[in-house]
Amino acid sequence: MNKIFPQGDANGSAAAGSKALPGGEGDVPQSLPGFLVAHCGDPASWIYSDQMCDGINNCGDCSDELSPVTTCPPCGPGWWRCPSTVFRYCSCIPRSLCRDHVQHCFDWSDEYSCPGP
């Protein structure tokens, strides 16, 4: 599972267990080129840029998948667009979860409308 990397709070202290200190040695976001880092809806959290728009809720608040933080393309061919009940996904679920007799969409469209894998 992908992790969120806290940058620290406004007082400059890092979150518990975090080794990154803003402006200090080991501050991963500042030691990497900016195009490799993406901020989440919570400005104190970040992910690697390649985790944006990958269908997975990497930020924990879906800000890496939904507006206004990011603009992702529509679901790809292996995905079904729906309001997900699964924390791991935001607005699309893998079609492999369709028609498996388990609700993955709030509106049950994964069981009744999705054509399946």
From TrEMBL:
Organism per entry: Bison bison bison (North American plains bison)
Domain of life: Eukaryota
InterPro entries (alphabetical): LDL_receptor-like_sf, LDLRAD1_C
Pfam families in UniProt: LDLRAD1_C
Keywords: Disulfide bond, Lipoprotein, Receptor
Region (Disordered) residue spans: 1-26
Protein's recorded name: Low-density lipoprotein receptor class A domain-containing protein 1 isoform X4
Occurrences of domain LDLRAD1-like C-terminal (ranges): 73-112
